[in-house]
Amino acid sequence: MAKLTKNQKAVAEKFDSHKLYSLSEASAVVKDITYTKFDASVEISVNLGVDPRKANQMIRGVVTLPHGTGKVTRVLVLCTPDKEAEAQAAGADYVGLDDYIEKIKGGWTDVDVIVCTPSVMAKVGALGKILGPRGLMPNPKTGTVTMEVGNAVKEVKGGKIDFKVDKTGIVHTAIGKVSFTAEQIYENAAEVLNAIAKLKPQALKGTYMKSAALCSTMSAGIKIDLKAFLNSAEK
Predict the structure, then answer these.
(1) Following DSSP, what letter does each residue of 9-26 receive, concatenated?
(2) Measured at the alpha carbon of residue 176, what is the angle toward residues 66 and 90, in degrees to the nearest 5?
(3) Does residue 224 contact residue 212 with C-beta atoms inside 8 Å?
């Protein structure tokens, strides 16, 4: 049997992989068991009892994290010239249209979010095979196809994220950094869990939210007592 490293021993003393932790406890533990030299991301995973192959069970939503994601979000706005000043004033990192469409066709996707106006969606839609797999395709449901490009940029920069269930029925998204306080991690995680809970499909039979866990980039998953959290949220 391989010997445990110093950090692995420290983690074993602070964390029980079989225990269900309250969300507040998990938010503190994820900080305690992360020993990376960089500011690791904190992520939440929620296992849902849905069939993503069915259109009425495809869970997708948006949420604004109270404390942001902890990372700088690079935003590209694709719009006509009359909207460029609004996008730039809101803090967009890149603004334009045809030049950026050509760059994307050439393989450039060095952004985190793309916002566009409805009038340019015909041009942006042609980039679906490039943007879709990277999760960058603008979508009216997430507020990234809009005439209010300034507001959209401010929301994204302020901590607005979108989430979507994957083909295995799991929602997985980053909610902060280990440098956040435990309370900030808790509040961001709670916001995501509450948003997912509100999206329960009416036609679904059986358990909707099966399990959830918090982890950092390099840590083990900390199981959350989801039932206790949901019960307290209903009160």
Answers:
(1) HHHHHH--TTPPBPHHHH
(2) 60
(3) yes
Average the pLDDT over 51-60 and give the result: 91
CB 65 within 8 A of CB 188: yes
Which residues have a Cβ under 8 Å from the Cβ of 233 and sit 6 or more positions away? 190, 193, 194, 197
User: Of 48, 79, 66, nearest to 230 (Cα)?
Assistant: 48
Q: Is the pTM of this model over 0.70?
A: yes
Q: What is the dihedral of CA 151, 44, 189, 41, to 10 degrees?
A: -70
More confident residue, 123 or 3: 123
The pLDDT tens digits of the residues spanning 188-200 come to 999 999 999 999 9
| Composition of the chain by helix, strand, coil, percent to 5 | 40, 20, 40
Q: Rounded to whole angstroms, how far apart are CA atoms 150 and 77?
A: 9
CA dist list (Å): 205 to 51, 116, 143, 202, 208: 11, 37, 30, 8, 8
pLDDT digits (tens, 9 = 90+) for 182-230: 999 999 999 999 999 999 998 898 999 999 999 998 888 999 999 999 9
